[in-house]
Amino acid sequence: MRNSHQKNGQPATWQKVLHYIGAYKYLLALSILFAGLSVALTLYIPLLIGHAIDCILGPGQVDFAALSGIMVKIAVAAVITALLQWLMNTVNNKITFEVVRDIRDEAFQKIEILPLRYIDSHAYGEIVSRVISDADQFGDGLLMGFTQLFTGVVTILGTLIFMLSIHAGIAAVVVLMTPISLFVARFIATRTHAMFRLQSETRGEQTAFIDEMVNHQKVVQAFGHEDENLEAFDEINRRLSKYSLRATFFSSLTNPGTRFVNNMVYAAVALAGALAAIGGGIMPGILASFLSYVNQYTKPFNEISGVITELQNALACAERVFALIEEPPRSADAGLAELPESVSGAVSLENVAFSYVPDVSLIEGLCLEVQPGQRVAIVGPTGCGKTTLINLLMRFYDVNAGAIRVDGADIREVTRHSLRRSYGMVLQETWLKNGTIRDNIAMGKPDASEEEIVAAAKASHAHSFIKRLSDGYDTVIAEDGGSLSQGQKQLLCIARVMLCLPPMLILDEATSSIDTRTELKIQDAFAEMMKGRTSFIVAHRLSTIRDADVILVMKDGHIIEQGSHTQLLEKGGFYATLYNSQFSLS
Amino acid sequence: MLQLLKHLRHYKKESILGPLFKLLEALLELLVPLVVAAIIDKGIGNADKGYTVKMCLLLAGLGLVGLVSSVTAQYFAAKAAVGFGEKVRHLLFAHMQELSYSEIDTIGTSTLITRMTSDMNQVQGSVNMSLRLLLRSPFVVFGAMVMAFTVDAQAALTFVVTIPLLSLVVFGIMLVCIPLYKRVQDKLDGVLCSVRENLTGVRVIRAFRKENEEIRRFQRRNEELTAAQEFVGKISALMNPVTYVIINAAVIALVYVGALRVEQGVLTQGAVVALYNYMSQILVELVKLANLIIGLTKSVACGNRIQAVLDIPSSMVFPEAAAAAVADKSHETVVEFRHASLRYAGAGGHALTDMNFAVRRGETVGIIGGTGAGKTSLVNLIPRFYDASEGEVLVDGVNVKDYDKAALRDKIGVVPQKAVLFKGTIRENLQWGRGDASDEEIQQALVTAQAAEFVADKEGGLDYEIAQGGKNLSGGQRQRLTIARALVRKPAILILDDSASALDFATDAALRKAIRNMPDSPTVFIVSQRAASLMYADKIVVLDDGNIVGMGRHDELLSDCKVYAEIYHSQFKQEDGKAGEQHA
User: Fold this and answer.
1) pLDDT for residue A428 is more than 80
2) Band of the pLDDT at A382, cuts 50, 70, 90?
3) Which of the residues B199, B219, B297, B417 would you substitute to probe the A interface, choosing the one with the greatest number of A C-beta atoms within 10 Å?
4) ipTM, 2 decimals?
5) What secondary structure letter does DSSP report for A559?
6) Is A13-325 CATH 1.20.1560.10?
7) Would you state the CATH architecture of domain B333-411+494-501+537-574?
8) Distances in whole angstroms, Cα of residue B442 to Cα of each of A511, A575, B438, B480
9) pLDDT one-digit tens code per residue, B219-235
10) Would you call A291 an interface residue with chain B, using a CB distance cutoff of 8 Å?
11) Do the Cβ atoms of A249 and B78 come within 8 Å?
12) Mutating which of B86, B505, B544 best tests the A interface, going by the most A Cβ atoms within 10 A?
């Protein structure tokens, strides 16, 4: 992975950047046009001023008529130049901000179709840092490139023409020496790229650490772990500083380096020109104007080399964003059949095998036939594979072998949307989005009426606490539920499913944070909801399990017992032990 | 922003030497025209080749000294800026850790992260650029003005008018842009929030097929960000063109005044050229300065956002370790609530009203009640995660507000409701409880927490690497490890806040038994909704809507407390009565 990146390296990244810029090629052409015109005018104005000064020869020899004509020209030229500069900057802003926007959009769209495996195995903060900081830094570099690169190149070309028209010989000295400056810039740039990448990587690591600790600040404080955390943070911080210092310092050498080369060019031209002047080849005045053009000519080289280092950094950041964008997505849904909206709810698992890590098998040879409308309870010790089973049913992960069928259709051969549309899911890990209570309940049915929403909230017994909130159903809840209690969040998650009522249900410890009195009150609504719907229930509470049509007892990825509550108790196996232990002390 | 900059004082030497070397370089640059003039006047004028070569070598020498001083300047600037960034990030992180639960509830995670990363990078970059350019540009601008006065005072008055006008434009645009840049960063927070949500809520979003809606929502926020960026870009892009027009107007005025003075015979043509050259120098510097100022404006907005976090005072003040009260360990009551009430910041009503009871050493206290009854709020008062709004909470006979932070929290082992683990090995996670815990002590805690078996099965045992958020463990495994983590510290008070919700009955029962048989017999608070988990407690506190509605032993409450009886019967239906009676 990393190797392939290095192999493709910068040219490949450049190509991708150009691809994004390509969408704005007309704006880009406009920007180049504005740059050309404004530079031509900025070179023209000193010429006008030169003419103006020629009108002032001495006392009594000032041509005021010609002078005022020239001044009007200067004024008009200056105003037009200013306008062109502003337009050029605005166009450049538009291109870069929109390119960054496009890249962020694409990165986000990729996040939506990344396999769960990728998301589960990466620190959130690190992915966030790619979409936010890296994209930001890339934009900054790109903008600087646009504004300074074009004007720089055009200035170089313009002054080159002026110089050649004055004295081709001395101009040749300048042209021959400039590659040195470019060589110095390139020499430094290639060496700093690696440091910028290290800086960027360490930043990602730091963001991940901040994300983890800020997010769980309460646990950190409960254990008084602030000092240790600060130490760990400082260690990353020091490393970041080290790389940052190197990247910043070495990249900032480009400017003095090229300026030095330019100063040497300046000295060489002064020598060649002065010797030529002593030999009578050129006039002293021409040498003076020549030297001022040398300055004009070499200055953009300084800027361009500065831009190059900035672009190095930008490119290192872009690489990381692109790596995310190019991450292989989950298999495509396009072209797959749709599962009908009203599936009967027959689910079968045929010899299913699955593992998260290639060589550590978790589920093997799992077989199960579920009739439409059956209530399936899954019990077993923690870590036996209950949650994994749900990951497979919802197709968050694909089975390694065997097949899962809904109404006879292999779920890998229907679209994910149509499969997931058939399931209503409540997880133990409650998750609410930043938005109003109403938005959160109506998540599965955005067009739900107010009455429907309130009815669902009442059925899940969330209505009474919602009413007590400051803005009722319009209360905006912060990221991840903010100050709501675990139980209240879970009630909202239940209301969410009660509103859309799909043909099959998955309840993974759906009431674990709700008190039993409230749970008892919801029971009826739950029973009503499960009527005629195939339901998979993971729970440790007996009341929920006991009424199931089939109880699956799982251990180490296998179903070791299967049957109804009474059948299993009579059998006196693992389930009976589990059941009896609920109330026992020993 | 200015307050932030004071942290540069740790890099005083670098912050002074950097700009100084930059000024030296600028001075050398100002000398170059003089040398060239000498070449033209003396070298060419007298056809003196030796002198010409000597002067050209001087030019090269000036370049070399310029290189050295410039490299030195860059080094000091980079060092100061990077060091400054390191210092501020450190302070920011340290300060965030100081904030109390109340502040954490209200600020939000996303914005803290952008402030520590994106905002911080911006500020650091600008400090670096400022150290290099901020002093140099005004130096050249005013230097040029002073030089103009030496040529002709009357013509130089043009400079006196132009420079304030330029400053007005530069600072005016800057002032307009600062709030606009702040808006841009706020919009960036929104984009970040979307990304985070779609990672943390990936399962729910996919289960509800909200991918496309989330993409639209993200695109809307992203579009808003872009619009804000383009808007402020249009205004800040005015800086260069407007200054350009002003300078050229000044040049026109200068040449006109010059023409009048030449006509009068006061000035020569060459002097006018010199004056014009000084004006051009100002223009060149201003272009550089304008670019710097645009970056700086953005940084001021970012810097203020960082300062805003640093300025949030922690609403909770702990006395200094020396001044803190010393607990009386022989005190018979370990925890006492004296008419304690709690109201959360911004909340309408009380979360807890008039908690009044005492707990003796070694007792087990059960806290039961419905969703939102205030169970977690009650136990959160003991380690002083929140301050009681009225009344007081005492631990070992001393008000919790009189304790040193570490002294109070070291006594208490908390197992929070949400099982949170951190990236690192199992051992590292458990040592959160006590940094110097030996493997033996850790093993002991694991056994008590019913976690020894699965930990032993993990590859590497205690060295097993836990992913961020404990994503590679099941919910029950995470929960048992968080219990072990609290046990490792051998706390005098153990708080289990509904910590067994993901455990199956057998494990839960075994856990309860192991805790009861722990050698140091800590005082235990068990928050639960399962009557079975706490029916053997020495004292059960029944909460309803923030009020204590019953307190006592299981059998007393069963007959006297309606709420408790209801809870109990909801879990032990008639047919289970047998099971319940068996052990009651």
Assistant:
1) no
2) low
3) B199
4) 0.78
5) E
6) yes
7) 3-Layer(aba) Sandwich (3.40)
8) 32, 31, 6, 13
9) 999 999 999 999 999 99
10) yes
11) yes
12) B505
